[in-house]
Amino acid sequence: MVKLQGEQIQLFPVNKFFTAACFYLAARDTVQEHRLDGDRMQLYRNRIRAHDITHEVQHLNTESGRRKLDCMAAVHRLEAKKNAKEADVMGLKPTARLIREHQPSEDYSKAEGIANMLSQAITTHHLLYASLGSAEYMEFVLKNPFNVPQTVTIHTDDSELSVITDTEEWRYFKALTKTSTPLEENMFHVEEGAPGPRVYLRPKESVHIPLKYQSFWCNNTIAVQGPSFLPTGKGSQMAKRNLSNIINAKSIKVTFRAEDGKPMAICQVNVEPTPHVVDQTFRLYHPELCFLKKAIRLPPWQDPTAEDPDSWTLNSVRCSDPNIICQTRMLVPGDPQDVYLKVPGSPSPHIKMFFVMVFTDKWMAAPSQIWQVYVHFLERVDISCVTGQRTCQSLVLRGRQAVRKIKCFSSYSNEIEVDPAGVFVLPPAAVQELQLRVQPWQAGSRFLYVNAIDMDQQRLVAAWLLCLNVHRPILSKA
């Protein structure tokens, strides 16, 4: 019996079975804590949040849980010492596991770096200065480095750079560029569905692969006018370059693959744009949201290099906008040809700009003329009037998101008067009525234009196409 502050506590002798049971319970708790710790570590690796942990793990915050954690930590320290000794005996360090875990990524990056270095070793760089519509010719020397014959497949990642497979076209460009390399007929084998043409090479054989770059596409957007437009760039030269380069610079890769699919050689073509010459400019005015159909006549052109002087060459045309239909046809040999344009409509006052390239040679090596076409889509207003009499017509101008200072201009100021004539303020989301007074002096059908200009930004706000049908006056006395 033991007395502690007035209380009597009776001590019993320690039993062997009780001691074994205590050790069994402690071992079981240790195993469970170790399992929970492993589950918690797995949850941490999988980045599961605290609210996803089950209720069995949350009871570790209690007093019994903290006691069990202390026992588990002591067991882990003993096991860590034993593992460290065994690792030293086997010649391994505790950090070997981390090295093994990071070893696959390092091997992958090393393999990727070696592959990039090998790819650069077989890559040949070529620089081209290209212009709109003009074909640039080049030849690449392909050599078979193996001691066995190979069938090489040529693949390009851009359709504007192609392989010349036609023997006559190859001969034409060689004569045009004065290239004195050998020419082999029927060298390429083209199959439908294949990634590119194929060429057969003997062991250690070298051949010249003809390549042609030609682009008909360009940036058809019109630069915003007015003093508020400032091009992005560090200086004036950068701004001028951004405005003048209609064709975007690009890098095209041509891959020559062997029979096993691995690259044998790579030709990387860097295309640098150069400005082109515009021979004629056309400005067409058309009502909004309507298709524009226009025919432009070409004069007959005779090829001076043709053997027959009476033979006429069929001209070819290409358009820089794929959404526009542009074609030409010759009905009777010797008659002038017409270039037919069909342009989809746009809302007013949108302006659509594109280029038309006219070729007079068979293989379209270089355009003989380049036309720049502007199509102004306007809001159509029909007016019927009498010669010499004044007719009034009202137009509606709607405001946008900001306050603007507007002034209206007409194509014929002596026949059209606009009220208000001066500068007026157009509030946001407001409606302004414009009064037109038309007084024509010639009978017939005519087209006049009225434009509303933002005087601060120097931009076109609205445009109207006035279709006048002018009648002769009724004679009262002769």
From TrEMBL:
Pfam families: Ig_NPH4_3rd, Ig_NPHP4_1st, Ig_NPHP4_2nd
Taxonomic source organism: Characodon lateralis
Database matches in PANTHER family: NEPHROCYSTIN-4
Protein name in UniProt: Nephrocystin-4
Ranges for domain NPHP4 Ig-like: 124-275, 282-376, 387-470
Signal peptide, first to last residue: none
Domain of life where this protein originates: Eukaryota
Top-level taxonomy: Eukaryota, Metazoa, Chordata, Craniata, Vertebrata
